[in-house]
Amino acid sequence: xxxxQLRYFLAVVENGxxxxxxxxxxxAQPALSQSLRALESELGVELFRRxxxxxxxxxxxxxxxxxxxQVMQSSLHADEIVRGIATLENGWLDVxxxxxxxxxxxxxxxxxxxxxxxxxxxxxxxxxxxADVESLLRNARCEVGVDYLPADDDKLSTCVLGxxxxxxxxxxxxxQMESPTxxxxxxxxxxxxxxxxxxxxxxxxxxxxxxxxFRPRVVVEVEHEHNVYLLVEAGxxxxxxTHAEARxxxxxxxxxxxxxxxLGHDYGLVFRAGxxxxxxRAFVELGMVATDVEANQPPSR
Length: 301
Known about the structure:
The protein contains eleven helices and twelve strands. By secondary structure, it is an alpha/beta fold. The protein folds into three domains: about 5-85, Arc Repressor Mutant, subunit A, CATH 1.10.10; about 90-145 and about 270-295, Periplasmic binding protein-like II (D-Maltodextrin-Binding Protein, domain 2); about 160-265, D-Maltodextrin-Binding Protein, domain 2. Helix 1 packs across helix 3 (about 30-45), helix 1 packs across helix 4 (about 60-85) and helix 6 crosses helix 11. The model is unreliable at about 290-300 (pLDDT under 50).
């Protein structure tokens, strides 16, 4: 039994005869009759009896009427859902991101996406301590993510959205800095608070220190990097902070200075190569458009 047979069955019921049903459906009458006979043969019952005024349902046909209508309604609903996903009238999108990038820039990007496609449900996925954005993409848990670049997997496509600059946070009781910048070659003098190896800020600090010939003196390691500035405020040590963290820390009395040279790393969209779902494709395109617009803005005075 298939949906075409049920559609023919319902058309005969609603129009009272095979001839009128064939006309409404724009099919040949022999093809419609053959389809009904095949359905009756499959079910092992007669669905109609011929009467002077046309076709009349048997008891078996009357029993099939309700289920047939439910099946066709469900089929219609499924078609509407699929069309809605294709046109972004509904659907869903899973976006992977580490917590700090979920605040900025992902929050504003999701807001712009929802303003255009308010029928699409968006789920922000935190990889957690035992995974990363790239693994979620490789395992098809998500189609798109926002992560620090470059990506380790050359099979993933990327689009740079911006650069995350790092500032140095010093406990309030530290001697006041005479200069607005802190030389990175003096970083070995400071007791540092940092996330574990494998996190973006920690890896950037390790990389730059290695280039200068020393290892950073990490005295406190924090699993979640977004809690680091609270330990700086408490006086446990210094830390390299993202711009958003540095502003929050500064409001709480932490000294914040730039480094010389400047520290930072690019971030952007990461997505699976190959065809994307309509929602994921629209999200990536929106990010690319936003990047192009920003890149073409005149420099600030």
